[in-house]
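For the sake of clarity, the format in which proteins appear in this thesis is described at this point. The record quoted next illustrates the convention:

___
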Amino acid sequence: MLGFLKEPVVVTAEINVNLVALTVMGLITRLWGLCYPRAVVFDEVYYGQFVSLYMKRIFFVDDSGPPFGHMLLALGGYLGGFDGNFLWNRIGAEYTMNVPVWSLRLLPALAGALCVPLAYQILVELHFSHRAALGAALLVLLVLSYLKFYNLQRHRPFSGSWWFWLLLTGVACSCAVGVKYMGLFTYMLLLAIAGLHFWHMIGDQTLSNVSLLCHFVARALALILIPVVLYLSFFYVHLALLYRSGPHDQIMTSAFQASLEGGLARITQGQPLEVAYGSQITLRNVLGKPMQCWLHSHTNTYPIRYENGRGSSHQQQVTCYPFKDVNNWWIVKDPGMQQLVVSNPPRPVRHGHIVQLVHGITTRYLNTHDVAAPLSPHSQEVSCYIDYNISMPAQNLWRVEIVNRESDTDVWKTILSEVRFVHVNTSAVLKLSGASLPEWGYRQLEVVGEKLSKGYHQSMLWNVEEHRYGKSQEQKEREVELHSPTQMDISKNLSFMAKFTELQWKILTLKNEDTEHKYSSSALDWITMDTNIAYWLHPTSGAQIHLLGNVVTWASANAAALVYVCLSLWYLVRRRRRIYDIPEGLIPLGVCVQGRVVACSALRCHLPSPADSWQLWVSAGGVCGGGWAVNYLPFFLMEKTLFLYHYLPALTFQILLIPVVLQHLGDHLCRYLALTETVLFNKGSDTVLFSRAVTQTSCCRESSDFSSRGHTLSFVFRETGQVWVFILDEVFVQP
């Protein structure tokens, strides 16, 4: 049983000195002087504030991308013992002693350092020479992992290493997208390459249907399901860490705000859940743009005539006010009853019920009529009705429509329900226009009645934020009641998926006001290097840190891309003429048989080379050229402030083309110009004439065999240490 102990346990390892040297060089160049300057450098002023919010567990929303990148930076701060106390207000501000500068910059520096050895490995996996691999300096991690998996799947499918690289590809995909949405471009490229590979597998007759199904399921699991799950996990951790209310949560819905500790949660905790007749409520517009606001009224009236000469109803103004105020309170009244208190037991308001909304302080009814709104003349004016004893009766009945209801009998709920108020007389919908009223309206936001409304735009949706059951019938007692907090014990918690959906939508749709930055640039400027970024300027010595491209690298990358495109087009045109400049296992051949010339359309050549030269050229273009295109061209369609660093992912792929093109020129075009040699093989009365370009400096042929069967010719010739097998198809005889 212990026989294995008779022999020594031997562990052998292969160390790639090139890889080790590149790793060490990458670490030295990226980590040396990492703490200098000990001051805020360019985007540290932007992302540093999020690190501080993580340290303090305060919720925030950043429209620049998903939270994974922010969490990595915060991890560096956490490992360095950062407490979050630093004012990130300007570039160049000196860091205080409590800021662990080295730890905060460590993870980005490590990522940059690892790009150097990974660039080497990606070209090795593409079957280029080690000399060419040494010329590549950058890499996108997820491309490397899939190439490693693809090479393994041809020889050892479903092995341990096969699963490792496939799963690593999925993890890398989710990380790339989780840091910046720019990573989505490369993820799409990888899915396209994986789909193309699987399409080729379908045509492989050696694979059974069950095997193909297993390959498909494995790829779907690793490249789609795992990235989705990990992407959701980034948000789960993000929301679990940031549980406290802060200034950024104001753009979120009332339900989301109420789920955070402090802020709105302190106000709404314990509110009644079901809105009933007699309820005292504040109504918040769901859109939250241009700012969050609440349905509001005050004693001032609309001017008799506006500046453009149009007249108004001179009724009490109704607006949307961006601050909490006692004039934001409204009472839900049953049109068939006079009381403004909640009965016992409460009578809940359901979807489709008709209500009146009474302003809590002025006791006037929310009203609209066929009078043009002050700033939106195609919509109706919304007001609180004042009886002037003229021919303009009150029209104050509103139908409650719960948009996110589960059934037509749903009860109107605090915070959770999103409702539309449809005017019974005119079918107009209560809507926030977003326009800011003039001085007579105190610059508050306009509220209108939208006619002929279709759909459920968020500007038409309202939710109850603060809520209490009214108990006082007298006006003075009711005013005191409106100023008092509620004291009831009902909790409302959002599920993770509900919070994720809302936060994801805000990240995608939130647009900060893009102002022209001193160092912003266009996508075209990146190619020509007509731009740079000043990262830091020493206040006294004048020392500076700039982001600018290396002229040699930039020009070489552009030239390599241009050469690749031109050569590819040239090869494709010649291949249409059946001229194969790059061998791919099909070589034209001329043969003499018994004194007659035999021609063939193609020759299948079983070469000992590990890779098909044409396929290698195409694959390199798909990965490197395609990676450059998908990470660069979309910026021409984006309406956002762009900087030079947005081009770095595309540049990574473009630089990889430099050694690809150089090796190709050395292996094919230069040698193609060399002399060709003619080889005659004799077998009885048959003579085979074979002409090929010299691809090796010397070769020694020991023997050859030739045979002919019907319309198929085949022959074998041996070189030192190698055996080449050729099979001729579609043979025809010429006189």
